[in-house]
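Entry:
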Amino acid sequence: MKIAEPNISTVLILSNVWPEPSSSAAGSHMMQLVCLLHGAGYSITFGSTAAKSPHVSPSLKNYAKTVTVKMNDASFDALIKNLKPDVVIFDRFMVEEQFSWRVNEHAPDAIRILNTEDLHGLRRFREKQIRDNVFHLQTNPQSLFHSDDGRRELASIYRSDLTLIISQTELNLLVDVAGVRAALLHYYPLTYDNKTSSSNLPSFDERRHFMSIGNFHHPPNRDTVLYLRDEIWPVIRESLPEAELHIYGAYATQTHKSWSQPKNGFLVKGRAPEVSEVMKSYRVLLAPIRFGAGLKGKLLDAMYYGLPSVTTEVGLEGITEPRHWEGWSKPEAADFARKSITLYNEPMTWRKTQSQGFDILHKRFNPQMYDKPLADRISLLREKLYDHRLSNITGSMLWHQSLMSTRYMSRWIEEKEKAAGSNKKT
């Protein structure tokens, strides 16, 4: 697909992690964005505050120069002065808080884009509700944006020229509940090509056992594993004594692996060697997600590889309505186990669910629907940046006030570390 040539040339992406598609959906989404920008003709520099791991996308070097950046350090000022970026993308609001004031100071005409991946405030708000056993978001959704994370994230959105939102549900929350102008937001979900179908994937009879998957750094995934082990799997195992549940996920520690119960067929295996091959071998994916935000990449991956899943309304959020998914379940253990057993045992239901997955990917997550509109949106923003910022009165107010404390704290830390370094030399 031909994307219009942009009016800008240099993009700086800043993140506190390196993209790891094999570890998380966020890593896949970031590489999707990198590939889009590269294909549109942009020169990309990817900077991260983290040390590189062996799981960084091997293709990143084909699309971008990579640099390590330091927080609270003047070396970043030198980097951005030398690079003179036309666009700066902040990967998550914490990165925007840390670096945007420096970008605004040294590259004021650069378009500032926030990539949320998911609304962190929403995820953490729901996690607190699970801990407190209090659920009021649906009846009082404004309370989300009165939480500390919700306020910080909202402020970051207003300070940015454009914010990428991965879930339509979250875009609606921001517009309808928080009152954010649609001109500040852009829906850009995970996308999948149309290269898979039931004809080139293992059949129902060729697949065995259950699986679950999720990065163990992510709190919703850890909660899911323990909920499966303690509440759901014992019920399933009683009806299907020969079945096993295999748990995959990046960054599984020995503590996580100790959650295994081999006698009960519950096995924590750690990082999947190759997600595509693993998913093609199992019959049902279990994802009893009780809190979270964004898009659940594990569910979309499963659809792509023809693996039906059982999940909750939170799991399906931003993907499809529960009434359109055979594997939808209430989060209660008994209902979830019943749906899982049915899907595992009934070929017709299994095939219907697999077909639903292919249909959802084709209609809602096709790259042709989203890549060119985002490239065009960035180009148009470059042309109209002055007027765009003039209309963002709340953002202007925040730039005048809110980041001053962050700026002066960062300067204070910088000077303190310089003084400590000088004392060591003497």
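The mean pLDDT is 90.
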